Amino acid sequence: MKSFDYYINGFSNRPPLVREEEVRNKHLSMSGTEMINFFLTFGFLVGDFVPCDNKFWHFYIVLRQIFDIVAATNIQTEISILLEQLIFEHHTLYKELFKDKLKPKHHIMLHFPIMLEMSGPLALFSTMRQESKNRLNKIRANATYSRRNITFTLAFKESLQMCYRLVSQLGFTRKFEMGPGNILDELPENENSDYSSISVDFKATCIEVPWIDYKGTKYKIGIYVVLGSDNFELPIFGEIQRIYCTEGFKVCLVCCTFKTIGFDEHMHAYEVQMSAKISYINIDDLFDHIPAISVRMNDGKYFISTRHAL
Question: Model's pTM, two decimal places?
Answer without folding.
Answer: 0.85
